[in-house]
Design a protein that fits this description.
Shape: globular
Helix content: 40-55%
Number of strands: 10
Oligomer: single chain
Low-confidence stretches: none
Strand content: 15-25%
Number of helices: 12
Largest sheet: 6 strands, mixed
Mean pLDDT: 90
Structural class: alpha+beta
Order of helices and strands: EHEEHHEHEHHHHEEEEHEHHH
Length: 342
């Protein structure tokens, strides 16, 4: 058995570890009306592929609605991408759980202007550091921090986290050079997930700072206070909010900038449109290259064929869990191109 990825000393004996804390993950992927574990039903959207996962407690009628009949192999291979085995030891799992439980209490509080979340900024920094680091080392989000950045965050977490919150030395944190180089901004739309579907997106382009959209939070996580990416680039219409959001460091209370439901809805609308556009571009490039390899005339697949391909891919009669994945892309492409064999 390999060693724990956090302490690097103990054996990684813990199973069912959540890369994303359960109190946030359940608001993104759990089926309606269920907040416990094993009720997840989620989709991971990539450039070409869309994979799905479901908890063992999801009712069979719900699975049938989304997938139709599932094979024994599909059930056997079903795995949540953000629930892992043998990443951490039991001691480190407990250390991470301590800060998660404390931070979860901040969901209760909200105001209509910049407000203190209810935890000190040192604890907030530890919590968001742990989330960013775990997502990065899991390698399932499409974004990874640099090797050096991962090690900085791991070292901070391993050195500072204790078995009990009361044992954390906050004064020592304030003197640590590596911790002083970390800061983050938080934008939140309180109670948004009570009315709207939410998601998790670790933005692949913005790295100064890294940008994580998770449930009703938008997190900007910076090394060396570097927020330069937002000086000359649009970030789905919230530049003003980013600028007005306070930077959280190791001092005082964690501060959060709230935004309206309408603003968050517009933000998500632009974000999703960007994701769709990226997939369409990739599909167009794939089909053009395929067309050339099959001996087609010219450099581009005719638009009439592409329109038919898109129509087939988005056909509503297909079960939601069977759409937009590699298997669907392969079958659809073959079936449509057979009509144009000549």
């Amino acid at each position: 058995m390999k060693n724990c990825l956090l302490c690097k000393k103990n054996q990684a004996d813990k199973k069912g570890s959540h890369i994303v804390p359960h109190f946030l993950l359940k608001r993104i992927v759990n089926i309606e009306g269920k907040s416990g574990r094993d009720y997840e039903l989620g989709f991971v959207i990539q450039e070409f592929d869309t994979t799905t996962h479901f908890g063992r407690s999801v009712p069979s009628d719900k699975l049938d609605e989304v997938f139709g009949e599932l094979s024994d192999q599909e059930i056997e291979e079903n795995q949540h991408p953000f629930v892992v085995d043998n990443f951490f030891c039991s001691d480190c799992e407990n250390r991470l759980a301590q800060i998660e439980s404390e931070y979860a209490k901040t969901l209760i509080k909200s105001e209509d202007k910049v407000y203190p979340s209810g935890v000190r900024s040192e604890l907030g920094l530890l919590f968001w550091t742990s989330v960013i680091w775990r997502i990065s080392i899991n390698r399932k989000s499409g974004v990874e921090l640099s090797k050096n950045q991962n090690e900085i965050l791991r070292t901070v977490l391993d050195r500072v986290l204790k078995k009990e919150l009361s044992e954390i030395n906050y004064e020592e944190m304030k003197m640590a050079n590596d911790i002083q180089k970390i800061s983050y901004k938080l934008i939140r739309c309180p109670h948004y997930s009570e009315k709207h579907a939410t998601h998790m997106v670790f933005h692949p382009t913005f790295k100064k700072p890294y940008s994580l959209i998770i449930d009703e939070y938008i997190v900007f996580f910076a090394f060396n206070d570097n927020y330069s990416d937002y000086m000359d680039k649009d970030f789905f219409g919230i530049q003003k909010e980013i600028s007005g959001s306070p930077s959280n460091k190791i001092e005082g209370s964690e501060k959060i900038l709230p935004i309206s439901e309408e603003k968050m809805r517009e933000f998500n609308k632009k974000l999703i449109a960007k994701i769709i556009n990226q997939r369409v571009k990739k599909l167009n490039l794939f089909w053009d290259e395929l067309y050339i390899s099959l001996g087609g005339n010219g450099r581009f697949m005719p638009e009439e064929i592409k329109r038919e391909l898109f129509a087939e891919l988005t056909a509503k009669e297909k079960k939601l869990g069977r759409r937009h994945n590699l298997d669907d892309l392969e079958k659809t492409t073959i079936n449509v191109l057979k009509k144009y064999e000549s």
